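Customer escalation, tier 2.

The customer says the design service returned an amino acid string that "doesn't look like it belongs to this structure." They asked us to rerun it and document both sides in this ticket. The original structure tokens are below, unchanged.
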């Protein structure tokens, strides 16, 4: 079973427009490939993390070891494209194309682990950001498709797969096209006009696609979700531009709006609705960031937008929430969901809360301690935290098993989005760290289900040996964090 050919043409045309339109907005991009020492450091740190993931997968005989070539391909592709300084979003579209073909090119039978491994490579390439901020849009385009295709493949009946996959591809096509259109100078002068135009066009294109491409008039209410998602994206951005007066209050309102939207969409449209909402939000990301708008300098194409964005954060949360749901549906034996009153599940829930609440202080301490050092601090701590996320996810599958691990991951996502919006960070790129780590931990759990069965079959002696090894690994990581955070050599431990 495949999606309708006209929809694939829509997607191809939208991606073409998304690649071309950013270059028509003014400025001259540096198309020559540039590589700096900081990017080399990023490649070394990120490559080390990928090597750790490969060692664990091969050593533990995980099935994903056979798909590590796709993870490497995604990692290298992201690293190479970062050297071209292309407009934000353009690398994401280029990375979406291989994700589409890895996902079966619109076919129902997709190699799930290959797509997930490719996404892991993209994420690991961004875990160690250099002097440039986390390029959330470049990651989100392929992430929405990869996570959505896996979710739809796992949960949709044979007679509904084409409709669900069609809605996902339609949402991505419309969002990519309208984001490119919103960059044009004709729409850059008036925010209300831009919001009205994008909202109306999003709903209209969705309605036309549902009626004439999907040929499913009964899905017409989804057009309101397309339009509403675009409008919500502009609303969140408008609040962001006014956050200089009372930033905490504004962020609290943004968090409330995101929570309400998540609840309503889940109730009316299901988890696929989260994916459509995540894509629709990105239609509002073509405008110049508030900081650049108040500057006399026109931002270059590769800086627009690169810093913190509540829209990017919201979309990342929604995609991650679907990834979490994928883990729960696949591996949780409790068909009614997660019972958080179970002792293990309750302990894991509080463990996830504690980790996320401590994260801003940890990032701040490490940043402060690194200010006196000559090397860049940006590459080290995210990679160490990424290693912690990898190890913690594997140990959760092994020791806690599926239900308690699902509780732990739920705490990471729910607390992480609040910490990202309300936490005190030293720089903008750190605001994405909580959800980056939550995404990495969840993806690791999804790719290592064999550890759940291994933990069920292990005896106490084996578990004690694993626990001892984990203690040694965490101790080493703690020493590294203390050494970098304090800015001096760590005291050797006898």
């Amino acid at each position: 079973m495949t999606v309708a050919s006209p929809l694939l043409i829509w997607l191809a045309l939208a991606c073409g427009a998304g690649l071309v339109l950013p270059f028509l907005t003014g400025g001259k991009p540096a198309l020559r490939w540039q590589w700096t020492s900081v990017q080399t450091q990023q490649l070394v740190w990120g490559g080390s993390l990928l090597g750790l993931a490969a060692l664990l997968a091969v050593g533990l005989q995980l099935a994903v070891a056979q798909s590590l070539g796709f993870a490497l391909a995604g990692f290298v592709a992201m690293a190479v494209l970062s050297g071209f300084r292309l407009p934000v979003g353009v690398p994401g579209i280029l990375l979406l194309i291989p994700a589409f073909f890895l996902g079966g090119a619109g076919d129902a039978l997709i190699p799930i682990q290959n797509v997930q491994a490719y996404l892991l490579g993209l994420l690991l390439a961004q875990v160690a950001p250099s002097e440039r901020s986390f390029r959330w849009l470049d990651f989100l385009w392929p992430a929405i498709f990869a996570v959505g295709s896996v979710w739809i493949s796992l949960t949709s009946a044979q007679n509904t797969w084409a409709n669900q996959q069609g809605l996902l591809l339609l949402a991505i096509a419309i969002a990519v096209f309208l984001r490119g259109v919103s960059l044009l100078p004709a729409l850059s002068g008036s925010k209300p006009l831009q919001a009205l135009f994008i909202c109306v066009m999003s709903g209209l294109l969705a309605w036309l696609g549902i009626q004439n491409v999907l040929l499913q008039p009964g899905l017409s209410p989804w057009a309101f979700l397309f339009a509403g998602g675009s409008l919500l994206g502009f609303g969140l951005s408008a609040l962001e531009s006014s956050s200089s007066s009372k930033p905490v209050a504004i962020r609290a309102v943004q968090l409330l709006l995101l929570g309400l939207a998540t609840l309503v969409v889940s109730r009316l449209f299901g988890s696929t609705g989260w994916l459509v909402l995540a894509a629709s939000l990105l239609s509002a990301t073509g405008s110049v960031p508030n900081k650049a708008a108040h500057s006399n300098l026109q931002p270059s194409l590769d800086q627009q937008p690169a810093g913190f964005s509540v829209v990017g954060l919201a979309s990342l949360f929604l995609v991650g929430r679907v990834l979490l749901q994928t883990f729960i549906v696949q591996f949780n034996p409790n068909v009614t969901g997660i019972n958080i009153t179970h002792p293990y599940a309750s302990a894991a829930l509080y463990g996830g809360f504690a980790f996320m609440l401590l994260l801003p202080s940890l990032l701040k301490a490490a940043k402060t301690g690194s200010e006196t050092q000559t090397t860049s601090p940006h590459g080290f701590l995210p990679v160490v935290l990424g290693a912690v996320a990898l190890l913690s996810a594997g140990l959760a599958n092994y020791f806690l098993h599926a239900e308690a691990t699902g509780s732990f991951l739920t705490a990471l996502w729910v607390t992480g989005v609040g910490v990202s919006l309300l936490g005190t960070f030293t720089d903008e790129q750190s605001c994405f760290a909580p959800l980056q780590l939550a995404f990495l931990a969840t993806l690791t759990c999804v790719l290592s289900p064999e550890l759940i069965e291994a933990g069920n079959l292990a005896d106490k002696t084996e578990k004690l040996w694993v626990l001892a090894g984990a203690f040694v690994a965490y101790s080493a990581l703690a020493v590294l964090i203390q050494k970098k955070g304090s800015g001096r050599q760590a005291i050797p431990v006898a």
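Tier 2 assessment: The sequence is consistent with the input. The chain is about 70% helix and 0% strand. The radius of gyration is 22 Å. Sent an explanation to the customer and offered a walkthrough call.
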